[in-house]
Each structure stands twice: as C-alpha cells, then as structure tokens.
C-alpha cells in the first residue's frame, strides 16, 4: 500500500475521537484527515473533501450514522464506511448493509483488529463480526427469498462463481486477481456483472448471497 488512507472520524464524543486518533496514529498507512460530531457534518465533509473511509458512530445528533451512511454512499459509492458502535443489535446492521456499509465493529474492538479492518476495507474487503453473521444471514434470507432464486444462481458463469467465492472469503480485488491469474480490472468487471445478476449492491451483500447459496462454508 503506497498511499495513505484518508479517514474521517464521525463521533459526538470527544474522548472517543481523541482515543481513535491516538490509536490510528501508530499506523503509517492511515491518515485521519478530519473529525466531525454528527452525521450531517460527515455528509458535508465528504461532499467537499477527499475521503477513503469514514469511521462512523451510529447514534449521533442532528443526523444519525445510518442516514449519513445512506447519503454518503449515494454521493460517492467508493467511500468505505465502517460503523463503530456499542450496539450489538440486528436492526442497525441490517439497515447499514442495505445502504452499502463495508464494516461493522463494536467499540470494545481491540485496536489491532480495528486497524486491520480499516486496512482491509481500503483493499475492498468487508467485515461483519462472526457473532452477528448467523443472524444477518437469517434476516437476509427472509427478506430476499423472493429475489434470490436458483435461476439467478445458474445465470452466473463459472468464472463469476469463482470470483464470488473469493469475495465471500473476504478477499480483496488484488488477492482475487492473483488467485485466479487475471487482472484487477477483469475482477472489477466480473463483480459488476455478478452484482447485477444476483441483484445486490455491494460486496457484503454478495458475500452473504454466496454463503446462503452454499457456495462457501461459514
């Protein structure tokens, strides 16, 4: 990784922001470019400044993190958003996945794991805590039972299935390209086709689809 990841911290608690900045300052590939105290400020910052990743609290005044996630992803789908929250609750995660979140971590996460998650998201990976995966899959299956049919699965080419399996394993585009001996541009093209065919918006939803369809094991 040759360039620094431009990261925005969105949290209404100053002690949390200061603690995060201190933790992230030890990682040379992460640069905290700004701090905001509510979701509206996060949206405004992303509109005016280059940002790679937003570390987003959920419960904030004026605009919460869920609505901020929706607006930021609509503004720029390439911005990765990691929810950092005290809430281990399904409804938050389901909403955030729907809007294209890249990661969901609890505030008691170990600093090393937080840094690893940020670096992974910057490489195109997604992260959902293992403790929540089963519940998310159950809800995802319930909500999408009418949309995710065998026919859609059969529409995928053999190469697209290979790429989808790698996505479900949390592999970045670069890692997938290396594993399948193709270019990163080809991986991106395959992902565009896969998302369209199975009716999802992002890697996290594609990974959940692959697990539901038993293309990979949990």
Automatic annotation (TrEMBL):
Modification type 4-aspartylphosphate: residues: 57
Domain Response regulatory: 6-122
Domain of life, source organism: Bacteria
Alphabetized InterPro entries for the sequence: CheY-like_superfamily, NreC/VraR/RcsB-like_REC, Sig_transdc_resp-reg_C-effctor, Sig_transdc_resp-reg_receiver, Tscrpt_reg_LuxR_C, WalR-like
Residue span, HTH luxR-type domain: 149-214
Gene Ontology biological-process annotations: phosphorelay signal transduction system; regulation of DNA-templated transcription
CDD domains membership: LuxR_C_like, REC_NarL-like
Keyword Phosphoprotein belongs to the record: yes
Entry's Gene Ontology molecular function annotations: DNA binding
Keywords: DNA-binding, Phosphoprotein, Transcription, Transcription regulation
SUPFAM superfamilies: C-terminal effector domain of the bipartite response regulators (SSF46894), CheY-like (SSF52172)
Function: May play the central regulatory role in sporulation. It may be an element of the effector pathway responsible for the activation of sporulation genes in response to nutritional stress. Spo0A may act in concert with spo0H (a sigma factor) to control the expression of some genes that are critical to the sporulation process.
Protein name: Stage 0 sporulation protein A homolog
Upper taxonomic lineage: Bacteria, Bacillati, Bacillota, Clostridia, Eubacteriales
